[in-house]
Amino acid sequence: MIKKKxxxxxxxxxxxxxxxxxxxxxxxxxxxxxxxxxxxxxxxKKFLLSIIFCLFVLLILIVPLLLIQLNIIxxxxxxxxxxxxxxxxxxxxxxxxxxxxxxxxxxxxxxLSCITRCNTYKLKYYNSTFKENVGDCNSCDxxxx
Length: 145
Description:
Elements: H1 9-28, H2 32-69, H3 76-81, E1 85-90, E2 94-96, E3 99-101, H4 107-120, E4 125-131, E5 139-144
Antiparallel strand pairs: 1-5, 2-3, 4-5
């Protein structure tokens, strides 16, 4: 058996008063504090997610513009709007020991000379076509934008 402690009347009254005050506090406002904090956390999570989403969209828009500005990638709008300029690059061949020596021997050397010609005029390389002439100097058709 558990023995009950006997308190004096004044002590019992003090204990009853303190218990009634605690019960009153719990009965008056038990959930609003919890629900407000839950609501605040939900609002703050939504706000944080919206900020992260906006920053992500902004990053997606800024990165390509930055790459174009730093000339890491070419601006596609400028490339599409310019007209093609054509150049004919003639081979400077010479006769040495009975054989023709060509500066533009094949498609690769044609492309390189075309790229340098385009860079000279501050244009972008578009394409090139190599024309081999037997018994004569070769030619290279170059297109730049």
